[in-house]
Amino acid sequence: MRQVILTVLMLGLATPGVAQEEGEDLRDGFDLLGEGTRMILEGLMDEMRPLLDEARPFFEDEVLPMLERMGELVDDLGHYELPERLPNGDILIRRSEDAPPIEPLPEIGEGGEVEL
Question: Is 18 within 8 Å of 26 (Cβ atoms)?
Fold first, then answer.
């Protein structure tokens, strides 16, 4: 797949040399280049669709809830340093020293009640 993308990009970069031609030939060349690119990308999507359909339940059941929870806990990613993996496998994401203070999360009562 990477080779196909590189080929498309190389063809796109080669067009300035073609741009010196005039008239219909140039227009036809760009039309063919655009059509070829469209066909390649459609073919890639057709090949990837089964993989994406297979991965969809994992993303819906596992990844999205995790990202939603992180969104509740993390106010702005710019206020955090790059993740750090410890020797025991834990991953730390430290808050930058110059980040503004965050509001504490509300306390959850025994029955799951949250006082607002």
Answer: yes
- Print pLDDT tens along the chain (116 aa): 566 555 655 656 555 554 455 667 888 888 888 898 999 999 999 999 999 899 999 989 999 998 888 888 777 888 899 999 999 999 998 989 998 887 776 777 777 676 66
What is d(CA 114, CA 109) in angstroms, rounded to the nearest whole number? 6
Q: Characterise 89 by phi-psi region: left (phi > 0), alpha (psi -120 to 50), beta (else).
A: left
Q: Is the model's pTM score more than 0.85?
A: no
Measured CA to CA in angstroms, residue 83 lies from 80, 87, 108 at distances of 9, 13, 28
